Amino acid sequence: MTKKTKHTKILRLILGDQLNIHHSWFKNVDDTVTYAFMEVRSETDYVWHHIQKITAFFAAMQQFCDLIKSKGHKAIYIKLNDPANKQSFPENCNYLIQKHAYTHFQYQLPDEYRVDELLKAYANSLNVTYTVFDTEHFLTSRNELSDFFEGKKMYLMESFYRYMRKKHHILMSGSEPLTGKWNYDDDNRKKLPVKHNATPPLVFNNNVHDIIMELNKTNIKTIGNIKPENFIWPINREQSLELLDFFLQQCLPLFGTYQDAMTPQDWSLYHSRLSFSLNCKLISPFEVVTKAIEEWNKRPDEIEYNQLEGFVRQIIGWREYMRGIYWMKMPEYASLNYFDNQNKLPGWYWTGNTKMNCLKHSIDQSLNYAYAHHIQRLMITGNFALLAGVHPDEVDKWYLGIYIDALDWVEITNTRGMSQFADGGIVGTKPYVSSAAYIDKMSHYCSTCYYSKAKKTGEKACPFNSLYWNFYDRHENKLSTNPRIGMMYHVWRKMKPEVKAELLEQADYYLKHINDL
Ligand code: FAD
Ligand code: DLZ
Ligand code: SF4
Fold it and tell me: Is the pTM of this model over 0.90?
């Protein structure tokens, strides 16, 4: 607690992903406190971000600053092209502390290791005192997961999820799951029927022209497209709540059923698209699950339990789990490369210029909306990168840049961990790879593809098919003892030598011509 005197002047830094109006900082207006927001090149330039991602963060920061000012708080907003902008958090804070003679510096725990280290070092270098606060956002503390798994060899999400259900008494009856069963994932794997028209997504028409003009004055390298007069993402709490409400009304009844489905017709299907709002803390995970449960209670005939449980699991299970793994394993996690993959990411990841329909659609929509849903990220773009032996650093950079919701703590655990198995099985129990059979089972991509889903070798054979076997062959030493994949090696070993040779030759050809696929 900062002891106050008549000279006390406190500078509080707010990062772009700390826009939580319910934080205790904002409970009372305090004239000794000034909040500082800053658009800085150190954040815009650490990867090539999607233009919509930078825009969404800047727009949400600007709106949040206006909001707290309207409530009587003092705030300073440093825009990207302000002449006094030193383009990094420490340098801007130093400048403000000197200029306004602040006597104390305060900040909230950053969610990214990189920024956490930066601010720790900065705070320790200060001549004024400093205090660090929690963001009061997550359902778990940074180290809760590592405490939970202490002494365990495996970090199963399911065990952690059950712990969370019990601890927060979510969908429970006493100490038992409400319906007697914890997890309804088995009910949630349906392909979209051919003539099914999914509910069109709720999009906003935010005018972000000014931000685009600011960005145009710089040489920041961005990717993707944007419509500055009709920016679709929620940039404040009201819009985030509207999107949540839309999701509960229109999408939750089919969320679980089509959670793994993919189609070129719809880019978000029944997904909530709440990840940006959640990750920059405009809405909280607790209110999201509470409202979902309330909605299910109101409409039990329309919303089956499996839809609700699937959604709740993503938020209180996967999301908190990934965060806990991140703090348990960083910084080592960021350099894990279990398969020693060294290849480059194919150039068409940045353009969508490939004949593979599944990849083309998933990448095109990522460039247009800064969004792909989980199965597109995992089983299309992630799957291909792993089969192609791309270095996880390259894969991470792409995912960290392209998605509206991408912040290191949740990007890296999902990408390097779940998708690329570069952690050797900390997050997942087996690599998520597949041939065309799975993609065709879950999507409508294959029927109009240049490649033939059924062909493994020869002209127009789907690249996923030979690369799949090549992957297992390449990593036999590391994978054949995994009980969850033993069956694949049984099939592989039983194949005739000439069939195997043909598959490996085909894969080799594709790997050598990867930029032309
Ligand atoms: P929904 O499908 O509607 O799910 C609801 C919410 O659950 C999401 O908003 C999210 O907060 C949470 N959630 C669901 N799955 C996960 C998960 N695996 N990990 C953490 N939270 C989850 N999510 C990010 O927020 N940022 C990322 O940078 C990110 N990178 C990913 C990279 C890869 C390779 C993969 C496979 C997944 C990644 N995810 C990431 C997880 C997930 O794909 C996104 O959270 C989800 O697609 C966001 O869309 P949505 O809000 O419509 O999610
Ligand atoms: C993602 C992002 C971007 C592109 N720009 C900024 C910025 O200029 N200023 C800022 O405060 N935050 C930005 N962010 C979000 C930060 O990357 C995020 O707040 C930190 O990395 C902490 O996780
Ligand atoms: Fe993708 Fe192969 Fe299907 Fe084409 S045939 S859409 S490349 S899985």
Answer: yes
Nearest-CA residue for atom 5 of ligand 3:
453
For each successive 10 residues of the chain (517 residues), what is the average pLDDT?
79 98 97 97 97 98 98 98 97 97 97 98 96 97 97 94 97 95 88 90 97 96 96 98 98 95 95 98 98 97 95 98 98 98 98 98 98 98 98 98 98 98 95 97 96 97 98 95 90 95 98 98
Domain 347-516 part of CATH 1.10.579.10: yes
At the top level of CATH, the class of 144-205+233-329 is: mainly alpha
The residue extents of the domains of the chain are 10-133, 144-205+233-329, 347-516
Ligand number, closest to the Cα atom of 403: 1
The number of the ligand nearest the C-alpha atom of 387 reads 3
Name which CATH class applies to 10-133. Answer: alpha beta
- 10-133 and 347-516 share one fold: no
CA–centroid distance, 35 to ligand 1, in Å, is 30
Beta strands 104-108 and 129-133, pairing class:
parallel
Ligand 1 atom with least separation from CA of 275: 9
Give the ligand whose atoms come closest to the C-alpha of residue 41.
Answer: 2
Tell me the sheet residues that pair with 74. Answer: 34
What 8-state DSSP symbol labels residue 452? B
Q: Would the CB of 517 count as within 6 Å of ligand 1?
A: no
Does the CB atom of residue 382 touch ligand 1 within 6 A?
A: yes
Alpha-carbon span 412 to 400, nearest angstrom: 8
> CB count, 10 Å around CB of 24?
10
Residue pair 81/41 in contact (Cβ under 8 Å)? The answer is no
Query: In one letter, which amino acid is 450?
Result: Y
